Amino acid sequence: MIASFDVDAQRTFTPLCPNELPVSGGDEIAAELNAQAALADFRIASKDAHSATAKWVVDAPEKMLQPLDYADADLTWVRHAEPGTEGFELIPGLPAPAEYDFLVYKGVEAAMHPYGACYHDLANRISTGVIEWLQQKEVNTVIVGGLALDFCVKTTALQLAEAGFRVYLNLAACRAISEEGAQQACNEMQAAGIILTQDAAVLSAMLG
What we know:
The chain has helices at 30-37, 130-136, 149-162, 179-191, 200-207, and strands spanning 2-7, 42-48, 57-58, 67-70, 73-75, 77-78, 102-106, 141-147, 166-175, 195-197. The chain is of the alpha/beta class. Helix 3 (149-162) runs parallel beside helix 4 (179-191). Belongs to the isochorismatase family.
């Protein structure tokens, strides 16, 4: 069984929300996410769901990415992906949340800012349930895409690989915060055995 995973493909990470965490081209990946989902038996997604009063929130972009001494929030970020705001919503062209087979909300706790969708904490201790759900559905292969490649997508893919799934990363279905971060993420994922593919068409041929 194959699952397709839309990781944090939300408007908060696109130019549609320029005052949050806009990633260049983040609003252009829906077609590739839909194409990879067409190759899968199940479609799952994750969404950041952050509090406006989260302990890691700062009031200006220049204050971001500063280290924090919290167990489950390692860096500062501006407010983003708050439920009820435009940034919380999925990017245009994706299914409604209720149409997914499994949906993860992460980062709800004010003192927690996880990147991966498989655990609520940075130590990979408190499961979101998605790994267990995939195992129960007898999924052995997961195709991953979403936002942003160098943070939440990378971490989710690594968590899935660590859990024993065969993981494919669809590069055309991702965008990164920085080119340097993207390259480092790709190196880390390849070292963990994750298979990087150019797009869903190539992936289709690989999957046969």
